[in-house]
Design goal:
Order of helices and strands: HHHHHHHHHHHHHEHHHHHHE
Number of domains: 1
CATH topology: Amino acid/polyamine transporter I
Structural class: mainly alpha
CATH architecture: Up-down Bundle
Shape: globular
GO cellular component, one term: membrane
Number of strands: 2
InterPro entries: AA/rel_permease1 (IPR002293), AminoAcid_Transporter (IPR050598)
Strand content: under 5%
Helix content: over 70%
Oligomer: single chain
Radius of gyration: 23 Å
Number of helices: 19
Protein name: Cystine/glutamate transporter-like
Keywords: Membrane, Transmembrane, Transmembrane helix
Main location: membrane
CATH class: Mainly Alpha
Length: about 475
């Protein structure tokens, strides 16, 4: 009897290996690389200008960077609890579905792929294109059309890698993470040396609160939090993480603490070499810094920054399609997007779906408007997810929670997120208002197309016909093995 049971288990193991499903291939090092590689992208090279512009002084801008790191760590700890409490992939979508119900979860899915993910990918790819192109035209202005063309090529490369293989995408992320951390070290060391030599004039009278206005402060935090954005991406791929109960909390905590220390040191380095006025005039802060402090390596820095942006782009395209994949699996998106390539075991339709949306927004968008535009909905739903975690704790106190964040941290993070989101409606009513309206457009879509499925029969037949032929063309199939 035991021999029969062992044989059955062996056969099931072979089925798991051969079946169409997403494999658990992400260990601790890829998990850490995935988070750091996604967080450290274009933000630290673009956002310092936005943080300084809206905070008004050197000292306050450094304080904003440190507070953004602490706030991101609080949020990451909350998501470590959510990721170990709910074993499905999907991140924000899954946690809203499990704690607050299907409508908030659908709205998160709707807004993520309508404009948050395209906007985030667009401004990262625009930064990539800028750092690739501008050195060839310095000191003249680079043609905007050429920057956008190179940006599209970068997006195309990342999409191709993520369609080809999960393992190749993971190895690419590890390599690019080491490159980008090397770039940050190259910036930090000259800054520390200059600081040790007494170059501190830019830090004198650093807290000039006269230029601080309450309505612009949330925008400073939005720019800082944009640079930290990505600490939640590992939660999108929970079903592909080896030993998630251990690796998710360890990877999240180590990654965010490391990034916070590096970000503060990088900004200190910027201010030792550049005056606040010079930083505000620069569209490529790291290049301006390299021309001053690293003249022998000035030509290398733009390449390293461009590769850093490419790593963030790769992490985003690796993680976000899993949310669409899980949403389609739950019936909140067309079923074609819950399918996997039968040989490459990648969520091919979900990855490809993002590509045209990113290209369209990339062509039409302006980088700082995109940051403010996307941030409202992103942080509103993160606050909702952690609020849902608190409600779920109260309603189901005996639910297994391998990692449990202290209650004061969860409450503080949720309250601060709602405060920043509310204040942003006053600070930038146009962009945040647009973001809010676009989020609410998902409500009628949910009740017409998902909740009651009231689409006309002719539309259903056309859609089913297109889905069938798309499935054949892409060589994709439904997941055969449950991975959660």
């Amino acid at each position: 009897m035991e021999r029969t049971r062992a044989k059955r288990e062996q056969e099931n193991g072979k089925l798991d290996e051969k079946g169409v499903h997403l494999r658990r291939e992400i260990g601790l090092l890829p998990a850490v690389s995935f988070i750091i590689g996604t967080v450290v992208g274009s933000g630290i090279f673009i956002a310092p200008k936005g943080v300084l512009m809206n905070s008004g002084s050197v000292g306050l801008s450094l304080l904003v960077w440190a507070l953004c790191g602490i706030l991101s760590l609080f949020g990451a700890l909350c998501y470590a609890e959510l990721g170990t409490s709910f074993t499905k992939s999907g991140g924000h979508y899954t946690y809203l579905l499990e704690t607050l119900g299907p409508l908030p979860a659908f709205l998160r899915l709707w807004v993520e792929f309508l404009f948050i993910r395209p906007a985030v990918a667009s401004y990262v790819s625009l930064a990539f294109g800028r750092y690739v192109v501008e050195p060839f035209f310095a000191p003249c202005v680079a043609p905007p059309a050429l920057i956008k063309l190179v940006s599209i090529l970068g997006v195309t490369f990342v999409v191709a890698v993520n369609c080809w293989s999960v393992r190749v995408a993971s190895q690419t992320q590890i390599t690019l993470t080491f490159i980008k951390m090397f770039a940050l070290v190259l910036i930090i060391i000259p800054g520390i040396i200059a600081l040790a030599k007494g170059k501190t004039e830019n830090f004198q009278n650093g807290f000039e609160v006269d230029s601080l206005t309450l309505d612009r402060l949330p925008l400073a935090f939005y720019n800082g939090l944009y640079a930290y954005g990505g600490w939640f991406y590992l939660n999108f791929v929970t079903e592909e993480v080896i030993n998630p109960n251990r690796n998710i909390p360890v990877a999240i905590i180590f990654s965010i603490v490391t990034v916070t220390v590096f970000y503060v040191l990088v900004n200190v380095a910027y201010y030792t070499v550049m005056t606040p006025a010079e930083l505000l005039l620069s569209d490529a802060v790291a290049v301006t810094f390299a021309n001053r402090a690293l003249q022998g390596l000035a030509s290398v820095i733009p390449i390293l920054v461009a590769l850093s942006c490419l790593g963030a782009l790769n992490g985003g395209f690796f993680g976000s399609p899993r949310m669409l994949f899980v949403g389609a699996r739950e019936g909140h998106w067309p079923r074609i997007f819950s399918m996997i390539h039968i040989r490459r075991h990648t969520p091919l339709p979900a990855v490809l779906f993002l590509y045209p949306l990113v290209v369209v927004m990339l062509i039409n968008g302006e980088i700082y408007q995109l940051i403010n535009f996307a941030s409202f909905s992103r942080w509103f739903f993160i606050a909702l997810a952690t609020l849902g975690m608190l409600i779920h704790r109260h309603r189901f106190p005996n639910h297994p929670r391998p990692f449990k964040v202290p209650l004061v941290i969860a409450i503080t993070f949720t309250a601060v997120c709602f405060f920043i989101v509310g204040l942003s409606l006053y600070s930038d009513p146009w962009n945040t208002g647009q973001s809010c309206v676009l989020t609410l457009t998902g409500v009628p879509v949910y009740y017409l197309a998902v909740h009651r499925f009231r689409l006309p029969n002719r539309w259903r037949r056309i859609f089913n016909y297109c889905s069938k032929h798309m499935q054949i063309l892409l060589e994709v199939a439904q997941q055969e093995v449950q991975t959660y």
